[in-house]
Amino acid sequence: MIIRTLTDARASDRNVSAPGWESARLLLKDDGMGFSFHITTIQAGAELPMHYKNHQESVYCISGEGSIEDLATGQVHDIRPGTMYALNLNDRHILRGRTEMVMACVFNPPVTGREVHDETGAYPADRAA
What we know:
By secondary structure, the protein is mainly beta. Helix content is about 5%, strand content about 45%. Strands 1-2-3-10-5-8 form a six-stranded antiparallel β-sheet. Strands 4-9-6-7 form a four-stranded antiparallel β-sheet, with no helix packed on it.
């Protein structure tokens, strides 16, 4: 059984940040669960182009408001508490925070822990997978 607190994760090397976001990674590849689980905070005013070419992601909004734009269709969806979105097709998107948003995120395959987005908006593939 794995037990961790968000407070402890935020105070450890499991906490990763880059412009516009901060992510406390509660489960990682080394935990052996087959997915990773993060609590990610998106800053108010952030506009984050992303394209998880190597991962699928599911996100649930805990608090705050923003939007996600599907770059393939141009469609924009509002995000507010209770909204879930899943990037099941490795969808290119822009995530925008109108207010600070707190999101619960699941990645498959799991991340290893220190990933940040590259110039294409992706996390690198784990070559040891």
